[in-house]
Amino acid sequence: MKNLYIHVPYCDGKCLYCAFYSIRGTTAERDAYAELPGQELTRVRAEGVSVTPETVYFGGGTPSLLGPEGLRRLAAGLRRRVSFERVVEWTVEVTPPTASDAVLGALFEMGVTRVSMGVQCLNDRTLRALGRRHGAADAEAAARRIRAAGFANFGIDLIAGLPGLDEPGWAETLARTLALEPAHVSVYGLSVEPGSGLARQVERGLSLPGEEEGLAALQQAEAALTAAGLARYEISNYARPGCACLHNLACWRGEDYLGLGPAAASRIGLMRRTHAADAAAYRAAITSGSNPPSEEVTLSPADDATERFVFSLRLAEGGSPRSHAERWPAAGPNVAAWERRLDGLARNGITEKAGPGRWRLTARGREVADAVGRELL
Ligand code: SF4
Predict the structure, then answer these.
(1) For residue 12, which atom of ligand 1 is closest to its CA?
(2) Which of 7, 10, 20 to probe ligand 1 with, by most ligand atoms within 8 A of CB?
């Protein structure tokens, strides 16, 4: 197992649009949490999963909320159990208020190679409306601290199609983001997730930019970012040469990954496992020496190979049914049918050619990626 993900479920508040598993937790709970993923790793290895990470990703939630000591203990708990000698990329997600000099200094000392910061936009009114706990100037100052701490490879996450952010406002966010010289920018379209604060506000009459405006904002982002030298290597992700996120690339290219922590997901051979989104149940299980509550399914080799192929369609490099079948022989009998279907989907604007014998999803195709997967199945 070469790709290790740790979910840190704590945040200092709840953003309006958020559908991730995140809770505030108490200081004591956050302190105690730092020990748990390492203990889970012991259990996973005892099950026979060999773990030699090459990419490590601390996501959340807000991992930096653990503070310098918590982050050091979390990392030490993992490194006591597995060697980090082969790690080529180690990412930690931060938010502007939690990216303090002390946290960033600790991350650099620990050997973290990449910092990814959720910014969403650089407009104070919209940030307030989204329930973010920072303003635009805080985000810009945090980006400068990240660079000063030694992280040339840092990323910024943005959301396109936000309410209250018209075309000039979005252009300003993109220009100010680029002025910070990030190596990587992710741009997600705003989506209304069931159960989020945003979904409740929409029920109460909040009007959001329409589909066309959302698409225009994504196109505006693509034009600005690619003009500045960041290549769109995945539908939502742009990077300077050599700065694509290797952890996410590995997952999209069909490799296995191990997720530790509540709500974390793993792909281990044919098995897919997602831990319950319940930090208390996770803690209780780990501290009492049992497995965290999870949902687990085992796919057939053919479905496994298909799922891995569908992920590759998200990448600009696309996926080739024939090359995929060389690596995942269970896909072999499907190659001809997939090629026919991918051609058919291309006629409907869902997929497009990424090279001879290769296809990728279009922006429209990404919105129906699950349906494409079912189509290929
Ligand atoms: S910081 Fe991220 S994980 Fe936390 S509430 Fe906001 S969107 Fe959700």
Answers:
(1) 4
(2) 20
Indicate if the alpha-carbon torsion angle 227, 230, 231, 235 is positive or negative. negative
Contact at 8 Å (CB) between 322 and 369?
no
Protein residue whose Cα sits closest to atom 5 of ligand 1: 14
Residue closest via CA to ligand 1's atom 7 equals: 18
- Specify the CATH class of 299-377 in words: mainly alpha
Q: Which amino acid is at 363?
A: A
In the reported structure, the alpha carbon of residue 14 is separated from the centroid of ligand 1 by a whole-number distance in angstroms of 6
Q: Which residues contact 200 (CB under 8 A, 6 or more apart)?
A: none
Strand intervals (E) in the chain: 3-8, 55-60, 89-94, 114-120, 154-160, 184-189, 231-234, 237-239, 258-260, 265-268, 271-275, 294-298, 351-355, 358-361
Q: Do the strands 114-120 and 89-94 form a parallel or antiparallel pair, or are they unpaired?
A: parallel
Segments of the chain assigned to CATH 3.20.20.70:
3-251
* Count of Cβ atoms closer than 10 Å to residue 311 Cβ: 17
Residue nearest atom 3 of ligand 1, based on CA coordinates = 61
* Closest C-alpha to 6, from 109, 85, 228, 44: 44
Nearest residue (CA) to ligand 1, atom 6: 15
> According to CATH, where is 1.10.10 located in the chain?
299-377
pLDDT < 50 stretches in the chain: none
Give the pLDDT confidence of 146-174 residue by residue, as tens digits. 999 999 999 999 999 998 899 999 999 99
Domain 3-251, classified CATH 3.20.20.70, yes or no: yes
Please answer whether residues 77 and 25 qualify as being in contact, where contact means their C-beta atoms are separated by less than 8 angstroms. Answer: no
Residue 122 has a pLDDT of 96
